[in-house]
Amino acid sequence: MDAVLPGWLCEENADISLGAKVAADYNEIKVLVESVEEDGVHFMRLSPDLIIMIEIQGRLLEVGNFYKISIPCTQTLIYAC
Fold first, then answer.
1. Which of 3, 24, 35, 44 sits CB 3.0–4.6 Å from 31 for a disulfide?
2. Which residue, 42, 40, 51, is CA-closest to 18?
């Protein structure tokens, strides 16, 4: 991802699940927030063996909570390893 996300793209995920999917013009990721730094960088668990880092502006998410984040497809690049 090549952007800082605005906080309004994040909503609490009541079904407490992890994963990712493409929905219309957004990539939806369901994550568990592992830690948050003061500058807005969030460390999030996307799967049992994968943690990602995303900077979120205007809102700090709560550690230990599950969230669904909708990232515009135009701001996402996917690479195969």
1. 44
2. 51
